[in-house]
Task: inverse folding
């Protein structure tokens, strides 16, 4: 009788160990590597770092993130492939840095005349989700955001009409390069991290970028004029994505916590772009000799008309092109 009771107890203990051991191992903490090309002092880099801390807090320490800003782990152009290959677990970069990789997102960067970062960010996420796009199939997309009006700034030449752009070499990338070309200037492709030195040395005569870059990337030190060409302002779409396997390995409750945070950070990024634009424009004007050029209504119409053929032609590149362009225009109108 005693032997039978002992055997039953032993079986129960073994069964308990077998049942609960896997549950304990699945709750193990994980540390992820986050790659970002923005310098650590930039507002967008600070937001990314704040997201990392929020993830750790919301997952009660189960998910920790090592943050690598300023291209210290991967450069901007390397980040997406680095995510897919597992060099980084989470990455923040520019879709346009990998030409042809993101066919749907590329349309968002066209010079539709974006009025703000908040609007551009809403449009990017709204349209991507509405169309159920699959541009980031190699990774797990966290969210998109987009900067405020992409403008043209010049080093020494005052540009008041389209004709003044002729012959100027303008640093640009992706759709901003196409906008520059449509306006009659000569696009020179390069990442933002190379812009300061290129302007300083006269390799280029100007740069296409949002106002915030004059402060965030210190380009106000090497440019004199900022043109408010809002009628054809482009945007640049940024992504935050994660390695698929690392995402799949997370506990479902931690995945849910991260996705809830992502919704908050979409709004935070859009507003941060606008706050940075405002602060940078004020700083740009305070710098001795710098000035903002406001295009009058008639001239603005000319600039918008100059980029329209390019937008229409770009829409013909894919079967879904016209549909995507219409979706962007509809979302832009609804969110203005």
Result:
């Amino acid at each position: 009788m005693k032997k039978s009771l002992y055997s039953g107890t032993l079986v129960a203990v073994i069964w308990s160990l077998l049942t609960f051991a896997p549950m304990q191992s699945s709750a193990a903490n994980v540390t992820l590597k986050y790659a970002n090309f923005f310098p650590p002092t930039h507002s967008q880099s600070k937001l990314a770092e704040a997201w990392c801390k929020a993830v750790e807090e919301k997952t009660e320490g189960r998910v920790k993130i090592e943050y690598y800003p300023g291209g210290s782990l991967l450069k901007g152009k390397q980040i997406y492939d680095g995510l897919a290959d597992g060099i980084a677990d989470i990455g923040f970069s520019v879709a346009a840095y990998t030409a042809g990789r993101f066919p749907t997102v590329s349309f968002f960067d066209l010079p539709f005349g974006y009025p703000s970062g908040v609007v551009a960010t809403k449009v990017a996420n709204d349209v991507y989700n509405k169309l159920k796009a699959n541009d980031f199939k190699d990774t797990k997309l966290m969210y998109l955001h987009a900067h405020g009006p992409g403008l043209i700034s010049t080093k020494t030449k005052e540009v008041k009409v389209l004709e003044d752009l002729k012959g100027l070499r303008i640093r640009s990338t992706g759709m901003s390069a196409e906008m520059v070309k449509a306006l009659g200037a000569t696009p020179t492709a390069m990442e933002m991290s190379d812009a300061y030195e290129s302007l300083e040395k006269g390799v280029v005569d100007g740069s296409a970028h949002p106002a915030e870059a004059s402060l965030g990337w210190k380009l106000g030190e090497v440019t004199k004029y900022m043109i408010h060409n809002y009628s054809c302002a482009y945007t640049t779409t940024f992504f935050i994505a994660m390695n698929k396997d690392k995402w799949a390995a997370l506990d479902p409750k931690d995945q849910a916590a991260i996705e809830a945070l992502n919704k908050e950070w979409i709004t935070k990024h859009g507003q941060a772009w606008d706050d940075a634009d405002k602060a940078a424009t004020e700083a740009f004007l305070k710098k001795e000799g710098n000035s903002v050029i406001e295009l009058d209504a008639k001239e603005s119409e000319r600039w918008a008309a100059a980029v329209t053929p390019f937008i229409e032609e770009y829409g013909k590149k894919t079967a879904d092109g016209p549909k995507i362009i219409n979706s962007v225009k509809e979302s832009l109108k609804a969110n203005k």
DSSP finds twelve helices and eleven strands in the chain. Residues 29-105+115-146+236-276 form a domain with the D-Maltodextrin-Binding Protein; domain 2 fold (CATH 3.40.190.170).
